Amino acid sequence: MLPPPQDPAEIVALMRNLECIINDAGLFAVDPLIKMALIHHQFESIHPFYDGNGRTGRILNVLYLVKEGLLDIPVLYLSSHIVHTKADYYRLLQTVRVDDSWEDWVLYMRIC
């Protein structure tokens, strides 16, 4: 298991990269729901904050869907499903990191 980056410069570089992926559709053209799942995983793997990464990551999901025009206003609440299936959430995050198994992660996020 790779630990989240701790070097501030590495975190800044990774967050800049993530910002580009979020905002430049040409860099990674894929269905917005799949891209939301990938963005969420990347943010959680960067783990830029001491606390609150999960809450911030779930808010990013909603804001990304608003940005992409899939939600009119940010009222979708994904946290309930993730909280109720927390063991699956963490297991699947780790499975991507260890086995590069993205399909199960994307399918899990689709249910959220």
Note down, in words, how this protein is organized.
The structure is a single chain. By secondary structure, this protein is mainly α. It has one domain: Fido-like domain (Fic-like fold), CATH 1.10.3290. Helix content is 68%, strand content 0%. The chain contains 6 helices and no strands. Helix 1 packs antiparallel against helix 2 and helix 2 crosses helix 6. The two termini are 25 Å apart.
Spell out the blueprint of helices and strands:
Elements: H1 8-23, H2 32-46, H3 53-67, H4 79-84, H5 86-99, H6 102-111
Short recap of the structure:
This protein is an all-alpha fold. It has helices spanning 8-23, 32-46, 53-67, 79-84, 86-99, 102-111.
Please count the helical segments. Answer: 6
CATH topology: Fic-like fold
DSSP E strands, number? 0
Portion of residues within helices: 55-70%
Structural class: mainly alpha
Order of helices and strands: HHHHHH
Broad CATH class: Mainly Alpha
User: How much beta, percentage-wise?
Assistant: under 5%
| Unreliable stretches | none
CA-based gyration radius: 14 Å
State mean pLDDT (0 to 100 scale): 90
Q: How is the biggest beta sheet arranged?
A: none
Please state the second-level CATH architecture: Orthogonal Bundle
Shape: globular
